[in-house]
Write a structure and sequence with these properties.
The chain has 259 residues and is an alpha/beta fold. The chain has 8 helices and 7 strands. It has one domain: 3-Layer(aba) Sandwich (Rossmann fold). Helix 5 links the parallel strand 5 and strand 6.
Length: 259
């Protein structure tokens, strides 16, 4: 193995949830690493702003992960624009902090619909196309990265629906990896630690919860968005050609700490 096996230049990628937060960081990081990218999300204003950031040779699209037709259209647009889809990165997600005794079934379902069912919908749309693409020298036709969470492993108070969805994402990752290896499709996940973004900043900025999370992180700080990019590049590269069904934790040591 040489450093060239980490090279992803020329790979074509669809990043869902790729216009803000960690998804945006991954989008921009993949572009910097030489990949060609379509970034999508359900927010039209963010999609338009991302188009300006990306510049030529890349594109954006509006996509609703809870809608199979929308997901299929995003995959088709990527193939039409970039020639094929080598990789899907699904970073779309929603969260709501609320005591579980007060959480309505409708709110629970809505959160799981995006975080878990949406992850399945976009992966299925990409997988259906990837399995019929021409393979590379190692028989690989595509790579999918899901976004799990620390909540996939441990319990965070008052975000039950989010935690259930993200625990399911890990099972989804393993299940799809098991089934789709026969098609030359690798499926892996990334579980970020605490990275302040628009999604979670109201929960952790200047709060007791935020301080508790910081105290439990051995590195003594929260992650910076660009620090998630290396994990994505690795999992998409030939350096990870024999890696599938895994979830790579990037958490500053959070899960390693007990007392």
């Amino acid at each position: 193995m040489t450093l060239s096996t980490f090279d992803i230049s020329g790979k074509t990628c669809l990043v869902v949830g790729g216009t803000s937060g960690l998804g945006q960081a991954v989008t921009l990081g993949l572009v910097q690493a030489g990949a060609r990218v379509v970034a999508g999300s359900s927010n039209p204003a963010k999609v338009a702003a991302m188009k300006t950031l990306l510049g030529p040779n890349h594109d954006v699209i509006s996509v609703d992960v809870s809608n199979p037709d929308s997901a299929a259209a995003a995959v088709a647009h990527t193939v039409k624009t970039l020639g094929r889809i080598d990789a899907l990165i699904n970073a779309a997600g929603v969260i709501k902090k609320q005591p579980s005794l007060d959480l309505s079934p409708a709110d629970f379902e809505a959160i799981v619909r995006v975080n878990l069912i949406g992850a399945f919908i976009v992966a299925q749309a990409a997988g259906r196309v990837m399995k019929d693409q021409s393979p590379d020298a190692k028989g690989q036709r595509g790579s999918i990265i899901t976004f799990a969470s620390l909540n996939s492993y441990v319990s965070f108070s008052e975000v039950l629906a989010y935690a259930c969805g993200k625990a399911g994402v890990m099972a989804l990752t393993r299940g799809l990896a098991n089934e789709w290896a026969q098609y030359g499709i690798r499926v892996n996940g990334i579980a970020p630690g605490v990275f302040p973004t628009a999604l979670n900043r109201p929960l952790i900025a200047g709060t007791q919860r935020g301080q508790s999370l910081l105290d439990h992180t051995p590195m003594g700080r929260f992650g910076q968005a660009e620090e998630i990019v290396g994990a994505a590049v690795y999992l998409l590269s030939d350096a990870a050609s024999f890696v599938t069904g895994e979830t790579l934790v990037v958490d500053g040591g959070f899960l390693a700490k007990a007392v």
